[in-house]
Amino acid sequence: MYRDVVQLLGGPVAGLHSMIDEHFRISVVEHMASGVIPIAHNSAGPKMDIVLDEGGRQTGFLASNKEEYTEAILQVIKMPEAERLAIDAAARKRAQRFLGQKFFEDFKAAHPNLLHELDSTILYSSPMITFSMDAEH
């Protein structure tokens, strides 16, 4: 359920997505919509459509290897809260173009045979890693 995803993503400050050449990854958008800074693979959907600047503001990080992932994680951990909140705000705004009824209708129009029986429920079945700045979690 969408409310469960929002609750699960309510605490972490960043989420990792490392699948190479994933055409579209809803978990990256869910990170962004929930205020979790995405650190996604620098290929396909995340690179071309999702983790792009919004209004001239950064919305997350892209990485291609363990060194770049490590650097992105360290940047998030070390960045001032105000900077994280600025990324969060831009990411939430960017994510809105992929969530909700408009996205469903656009997707349904592009894939009418695939979705003839599907309603607007988005199924969530993607493993992901998130991390929190809170030492208790």
Give a description of the structure.
With 137 residues, the chain is of the alpha/beta class. Helices cover 45% and strands 11% of the residues. It has six helices and four strands; from the N terminus they run H-E-H-E-H-E-H-H-H-E. Strands 3-2-1-4 form a four-stranded mixed β-sheet, sandwiched between helices. Strand 1, helix 2 and strand 2 (37-41) form a beta-alpha-beta unit. The longest helix is centred in the middle third of the chain and has 15 residues, at 81-95. The radius of gyration is 15 Å and the shape is globular.
Percent strand equals 5-15%
Characterize the biggest β-sheet.
4 strands, mixed
Distance between the termini: 23 Å
What is the average of the pLDDT values? 78
Order of helices and strands: HEHEHEHHHE
Helix content: 40-55%
Overall 3D geometry?
A: globular
How many DSSP helices?
A: 6
Radius of gyration: 15 Å
Q: Which parts are unreliable, with pLDDT below 50 for 5 consecutive residues or more?
A: 116-137
Count of distinct strands: 4
Specify the structural class. alpha/beta
Strand neighbour order, sheet with most strands:
3-2-1-4
Strand-helix topology:
Elements lengths: L1 H7 L5 E4 L8 H8 L3 E5 L2 H7 L10 E3 L2 H13 L2 H15 L4 H11 L18 E3 L6
Parallel strand pairs: 1-2, 2-3
Antiparallel strand pairs: 1-4
Structural features:
6 helices, 137 residues, alpha/beta, four-stranded mixed β-sheet
